[in-house]
Specification:
Four copies of one chain form a homotetramer. By secondary structure, chain A is of the alpha/beta class. The first copy, chain A, has twelve helices and 14 strands. β13 of chain B pairs antiparallel with β13 of chain D. Chains A, B, C, D: This is Gfo/Idh/MocA family oxidoreductase.
Chain lengths: ~400, ~400, ~400, ~400
């Protein structure tokens, strides 16, 4: 990724992501990678002692190492502009997203929030309204959109290279919840299977929402109605650990979305296939540098990251030459790079390069919340089709 | 495949499979491969002149080269036992399967019939009853069951090596009908998209039925209810060219079945994934010699055809050493080899080796007909779930 | 493969290939596949009793089931033209190739002989001279040349699609001789590691010769000099089980050839990579239906068997549609199909279609013998480069 | 990678790596990734103006942004301990490595230097002696050793899991120098094909040295003698762009090493295959998270990064869960992480965890220099074998 020359590093705070957390460290690696921002403040856990211990691990100054996110917010509001954070990253369990995001947006801060954005459509609508009112920057870490070959796929579909889209099959399969991990000391399993913290859905919320976002990002299609079957396979589990959906898109395309966390032996198998009148595209997250294009009238083609014949949006999302693998953190960093480009532009009063300022916005997060809510509604319904509009 | 020593070659006739046909030649290659049977009689087309011209191409003797299947049947009934065919292979378009199969079974002949077996559940039931009454051998060429690694998958699932099955995803995607081929001189496209000849379903009948059979073969699971969305994407097409189904199996497993002939650029992408409590199996027809096993507690394993550690049923389905690829015709030949083993045993009054006499029976064919009928019913229904029983 | 309509089936005899043999059965399957020839006579072992027992297994008539190849030859010469064989297939251990081939050619018979053709350059020269003198058809079963995608590679290289060839890397690695199998009842291991039967080389003769032939077939390059390192890894083994060579081709291209039978765990991993000024081609025998083309100026392309955009020589080498895997036997059958096309043309006084009559000739076999002899010479030499001419 | 909690960030300077450079940015990303060190000083180009402009791009303070490495060194020596750099990263073209590295080591600084280490064995010996005398930490960025699955391969080979090693095949193929890029404004091509800057070898020095290091790292084998063929394919090129070597290792193992930059269409195809008496391991840099193990007595196994059953040295080299791809930068960061662990231990007077302090040392760099020198000698020799000792 060709980075514009920074005048200074941006400053950021983190809410959540302390000891025992998984995704917080990924966010920090992703932000660190390009050397564009420094980590200056945090409220790294909902448990004040753990929050502060985590902050010390990460070399936060004591006066910016908070036991509570409200204290962080209050403190930042008091600081001079040249000390104040440029954005906050919210990496807590899902149920904390809404109050923190709403408070920081209301206070005028730029925000990066993990997905799924919030628990309810009502919360999502409130947050979208606040962002629009406050004109703040708000990124949602649907991180898979940061992969260069996802951007290449999007560019090819949007340019009509596979013709009119007819069929979309997206799967996100994992195996790590194939047994009853929750309650055994695995913090990730604990909160992700707890309705109070995870939300109305399990696998569908945690990874199905990524699948929905990937489809929307690449194809631009809008779901018209859906038909879901959600299952709790592991005895004693409180939320779905497996879901399969039939999708009908506006304009007539059809789809299948599968999200499952009980596919024992699988790791992180997110994959997308989009077929149009002129050909098919296939992408797999576990081999992210490849995009397979099957044209109807010639041999299969495999596009790889870093090639000069890629769409500029894919080229710009890459740091090193072809054949030198980039991965998950680099894709994540591209999402952050996009947010930071918008923040810098706002600071400068300039316009960010749209090839860099390319990231999921609060509206994408809100659409994901609707997806979860309508899927849960469909799963509870005897009717075949549940409308997207609700 | 270790072939038992034949006393003599078996004799067979073919109905259908003349000039312009596709699958008839495959059947003949498959039967020829092991040198166990000779092609002695036929009625190779529904057009008498074309039937006879096709028979001459294939060196049939004039007196056994018929213009019509009824003439073939009548002639065979008049022949002495040491000249009469041992079995008939029915490789016509679907609508001809039933009358021919019924007539030959009623006359006491052994039959191999292509799939889908017949057009209606009523026909299927009648045929099953006739076979049981006549005690004839009846094989259905769900040819994908002949692949050694499908047999290995079946053996592993049945032995509990992936634990209790929870989720099954089967897809059969092709691209050859992505445009309106019918009516342009492509005989295969013509009859397969014509309800009068193909039956009540298009893609679901032609290839979805293979997918259903593969799931049943490997897992032994029985469908309890299903929810189907069938689509005709190509303007002017009379039958579905795309279908997606949610499946619920007896005992609680869940599944997804996708069959589509409009995935432009895809060739013959039949693939199966079965996840159980202890691991996952994956198989793809386009790389048929590999079976991927993902255990929950160790590295991914790739079983390959020809290895001495395979289940005997997989070993016996193989002719040449590991690393020397076998393909579609060899798998097809295994189905025929199974039928012929049963025929030889019947001739000898012996018992066939069950590792060889391993092929889909008339009951499997009947189950496939039910699958098609219930899928079409579900697609027409507003109810979410359509029961298998009907 | 589009088969020209036969007037009658050809008749063939086999020398070697009885019980305990491996490759004889492959030859019979390959010949049977297309139903173009019938197996009518044989001398299936050097042990007369075993020869006759093997012939009975395979339903040979008693008067054509010989205990000795000389008896077979004498008998055939006495038969009327409408009974006599059209060709003989020689599938014995290597040391028997020469006397049998020479005798049958001298007697005017068409021959198919396994590789390596003979033991010495002198024998090879004599045989080439005899074939030219007798104007008989003589095919050598370098069977890998029968794969459609090898023919596609040849067509692309010859058409300049990868520019001028610079670098060739060919490997043929197996693992089955990683331990001391010989002397333990494995007939294949016994004769292949015995200099008296196998010839001057082990792995280099058995599989290195296939690698040499593949390079010559695809590229047309001629070796100018070579530098070989041959090793006997398994204690007590009498011949090399591993070899690596540097190659210099006329015109300046460079190459590496590796042949090894001690790569424990590998099956039949023959692979070729050819790089030219404009791109690279890669082919692997274990995935024979794919040819990978890496152009210097665009995305990787994967050609697959059966596609309409393949070169006609590749299309004609295929029996069934794309996505329906063909394998080793089908490729082998293409070599036989080529020989039989030439035999039929000779019978008819016509010209065979060169797209079908495409198979390795006696001269290719002779070149392979030279390859083995020069490689062994290089391995014994202190000089870096050993000339091809000798 | 489980990072020990730092008391403070380390400070580092960089020599080379300014505008137009490629690898400098990779080093900076790799160091930044884990947030363990900050970039505080530099002499980023041999052209003073470009050096300072590059430093300003990267936000270096003016007083630590030098036009010349001697100025950097002099300045650091004057600084107080709590400001002075903890290490210097040397990322210049090859010819500058030696004087800079020698000067910083002589001054007592810890060093990370790119490969190949220096131009001559004499320089290498002098540097090794200096490091041993000064007891400084010295890492060489043979970055491919930082991949978790390379460490897994090393652990498996060293533990005897493939038995005694017999055959090693390593290839490093690229295509970017297939045409005459040098002299056309491509700085990378310019210096890498210039003997004065690149050294005595082209492809062999630039990427062949990585291949040699990979073999040594994974197997521990020592080369006894080698036989090289080096070629300059592109007209006008001053150094080899292609090389192939036969290798003989102490103890009897054999090998082939191929390094080529004219394989048009290839990207960065470094691959290793090691066969032992009990099985084979295969690894490809372009799919770095997989290690293929082919045991002689069971199905192929694919180990993947992040699995709990990996060797601790592989587990520790990983930051995020299995299935979330890590790549080139992460591997590079592991090398830096190892160096930094040793530096921290030195600062603390403690012992670094050997699972973290795992990186190529100055002696590995020196062995690489010998490899290049002996390869060039062999290429110029008529003798088949050139001894490693010289």
């Amino acid at each position: 990724m060709s980075i514009s020359i920074p005048q200074r590093k941006l400053r950021y705070a983190m809410v959540g992501g302390g000891r025992d957390a998984f995704i917080g460290a990924v966010h920090r690696h992703a932000i660190a990678l390009d050397g564009q921002a420094e980590f200056v403040a945090g409220a790294l856990s909902s448990t004040p002692d753990k929050a502060r211990a985590s902050g010390r691990d990460l070399l936060l100054a004591d006066d910016r190492n908070h036991g509570d996110w409200r204290s962080l917010l209050a403190d930042e509001l008091k600081r001079a502009a040249d000390q104040r954070i440029d954005f906050v990253a919210i990496v807590t369990p899902n149920h904390v997203h809404y109050p923190v995001a709403q408070a920081f947006v209301d206070a005028g801060f730029h925000v990066v929030c993990d997905k799924p954005l919030v628990h309810t459509i009502a919360q999502a609508d409130a947050l979208v309204a606040a962002v629009q009112r406050q004109r703040t920057i708000f990124g949602v870490t649907y991180n898979y959109t940061g992969y260069p070959m996802v951007r290449q796929a999007r560019a090819m579909v949007r340019a009509g290279e596979i013709g009119e889209v007819r069929k979309v099959v997206v799967e996100y399969n994992q195996g790590w919840l194939a047994s009853h991990l929750e309650g055994s000391g695995n913090k990730q399993a604990d909160w992700r299977t707890d309705p109070a913290r995870s939300g109305a859905a399990g696998a569908i919320g945690d990874i199905g929402s990524h699948a929905e976002n990937l489809v929307a990002t690449v194809t631009g299609l809008e779901i018209e109605s859906l038909c879901a079957d959600l299952t709790r396979f592991v005895p004693g589990r409180a939320l779905d650990d497996d879901g399969s959906l039939l999708l009908r898109f506006q304009g007539g395309a059809r789809g299948v979305l599968i999200a499952s966390q009980i596919n024992a032996g699988l790791e992180n198998d997110l994959r997308l296939r989009v077929s149009g009148t002129l050909g098919t595209l296939e992408w797999r997250q576990e081999q992210p540098s490849q995009l397979v294009h099957l044209p109807h009238d010639g041999p299969k083609r495999i596009f790889t990251r870093g090639a000069p014949w890629l769409h500029p949006s894919a080229q710009r999302a890459s740091r090193i030459p072809a054949g030198h693998p980039e991965g998950f953190i680099e894709a994540f960093a591209n999402v952050y790079g996009g947010v930071m480009a918008d923040i810098r532009a706002k600071l400068d009063g300039s316009q960010a390069d749209p090839l860099v300022a390319d990231y999921p916005h609060v509206e994408d997060g809100a659409r994901g919340v609707r997806f979860i809510e309508r899927t849960v509604a469909s799963a509870a319904s005897e009717a075949k089709w549940t409308s997207w509009a609700g």
